[in-house]
Design brief:
The chain has helices at 2-12, 37-40, 43-57, 73-85, 129-140, 158-163, 175-185; strands at 14-16, 22-23, 29-30, 32-34, 64-68, 91-95, 108-110, 117-125, 144-153, 169-174. By secondary structure, it is α/β, with parallel strands linked by helices. The chain has one domain (41-174): 3-Layer(aba) Sandwich (Rossmann fold), CATH 3.40.50.2020. The strands form three sheets. It has a six-stranded mixed beta sheet, with helices on both faces. A two-stranded antiparallel ribbon has the order 1-4. Strand 2 and strand 3 form a beta hairpin. Helix 1 crosses helix 3 (43-57), helix 1 (2-12) crosses helix 7 and helix 3 crosses helix 4. The longest helix has 15 residues, at 43-57. It starts with a helix and ends with a helix.
Length: 188
């Protein structure tokens, strides 16, 4: 599954340039660009990402999986669906970028209660900033964040930064694996 997802990411979500050509959120220029949404919103990509992320969290004894909207949303839903298929149901949840200011004021949408163990996920980690925000917001709502999983690690310090907030952090696919696959399949 991982190899197939890597190939799909290379076709739909990964861009590479010999010179820094892609502007990142930080404003910095990079040789690599990863936008996982075309892959995680694709039926096969959703299937693969969901199963691989569920496999990465299944031993953590969590009741929920989610992260900052929108990057984490399709992955969380896919992982929750995969958990149901494997008779180990885990709830999906979404963390808002701005707190809901009406009704029940909160950061998180989903069927979770304070004290429950959860895994925070993200589509891509560069510095880990959005994953860390998700961890902090989940904790502010009383959730016990015990694991973080990133679909693609750009290998620029993000996992190390996230690890300062939750010890158990992993990535499904690394930038090096994407570059290796991209190089193997790139047409001259």
């Amino acid at each position: 599954m991982k190899q197939e997802l890597t190939e799909l990411l290379c076709r739909k979500s990964f861009k590479y340039s010999e010179e820094p050509a892609f502007k990142l959120v930080s404003g910095r220029m990079s040789k690599f660009y990863v936008n996982c949404k075309p892959t995680t919103l694709d039926p096969r990509g959703m299937f693969l990402a969901g199963h691989l992320v569920f496999d990465a969290i299944r031993t953590a004894n969590v009741t929920g999986v989610g992260g900052l909207t929108f990057g984490a949303d399709p992955i969380a839903v896919a992982a929750a669906f995969a958990s149901g298929l494997k008779d180990q149901p885990i709830q999906a949840f979404s963390i808002r970028k701005t707190r809901k200011d009406h009704g029940i004021v909160r950061w998180i949408e989903g069927d979770l209660t304070p004290g429950q163990r959860v895994a925070i996920i993200d589509d891509v980690a560069t510095t880990g900033g959005s994953t860390i925000r998700a961890i902090e917001r989940a904790r502010s709502e009383g959730l016990d964040v015990v694991r973080a999983v990133v679909l693609v690690d750009r290998q620029e310090g993000g996992l190390e930064n996230i690890r300062e907030h939750v010890a158990d952090v992993s990535a499904v696919i690394t930038r090096d694996e994407l570059v290796e696959q991209w190089t193997a399949t790139a047409r001259p």
